[in-house]
């Protein structure tokens, strides 16, 4: 008798209809799509900040290496490879291959320069690079190889 009651109770329970399930699923998918669009733009922003910080650290490394080892350190951007490197003579300290969406402005005077053993650079000026549709500039001031990176628009 007990088995018959269980069967009746099971049949008496009502579940969700297909329409209700599809409605909940569509709302859930709408929320996910809105959140994922914001996530991708956040990811791009974090990638930009990461690259700028990496370039800044590489330049500081070249500057520090020149002073501590009393040697000339060259910064060179290679257009054909979309890469930059820091080297001492024939020895490469760092070579960074850049993604497609990051590039330097061609034909700049500052696409190559030297950190001198006393910490200065051999020339001063502006090095312009692009990350997607944003423009950044590395501005090298006169004296002691100081530089800053600014968002140019």
Strands, helices and their partners?
Layout: H1 2-12, H2 18-69, E1 73-78, E2 83-88, E3 91-97, E4 102-104, E5 112-115, E6 125-131, E7 134-140, E8 147-151
Antiparallel strand pairs: 1-2, 1-5, 2-3, 4-6, 6-7, 7-8
At a glance:
With 153 residues, this protein is an alpha+beta fold.
Description of the molecule:
This protein has 153 residues and is an alpha+beta fold. Helices cover 41% and strands 29% of the residues. The chain has 2 helices and 8 strands, in the order ααββββββββ. The strands form 2 sheets. A 4-stranded antiparallel sheet has the order 3-2-1-5, covered by helices on one side. It has a 4-stranded antiparallel sheet with strand order 4-6-7-8, with helices on one face. The protein is elongated, with a radius of gyration of 29 Å. 12% of the residues are buried.
Q: What's the pLDDT, averaged over the residues?
A: 85
Tally the helices: 2
Principal-axis shape equals: elongated
Q: What's the β-strand tally? A: 8
The main sheet orders its strands as 3-2-1-5
Q: Given the helix and strand composition, which structural class is it?
A: alpha+beta
What's the Cα radius of gyration? 29 Å
**SSE order:** HHEEEEEEEE
State which percent range the strand residues make up.
25-35%
- Biggest sheet: strands, sense, closure? 4 strands, antiparallel
Low-confidence stretches: none
Helicity range: 40-55%
Distance between the termini: 80 Å
């Amino acid at each position: 008798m007990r088995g018959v009651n269980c069967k009746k109770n099971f049949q008496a329970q009502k579940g969700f209809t297909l329409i209700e399930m599809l409605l909940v699923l569509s709302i859930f998918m709408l929320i996910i799509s809105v959140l994922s669009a914001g996530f991708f733009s956040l990811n791009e922003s974090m990638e930009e900040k990461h690259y700028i910080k990496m370039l800044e650290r590489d330049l500081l490394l070249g500057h520090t290496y020149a002073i501590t080892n009393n040697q000339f350190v060259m910064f060179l951007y290679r257009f054909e490879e979309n890469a930059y490197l820091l080297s001492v003579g024939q020895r490469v300290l760092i070579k960074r291959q850049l993604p497609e969406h990051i590039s330097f402005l061609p034909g700049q005077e500052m696409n190559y320069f030297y950190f001198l053993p006393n910490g200065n650079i051999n020339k001063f000026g502006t090095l312009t690079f692009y990350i997607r549709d944003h423009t950044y500039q590395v501005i090298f001031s006169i004296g002691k190889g100081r530089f800053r990176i600014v968002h140019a628009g």
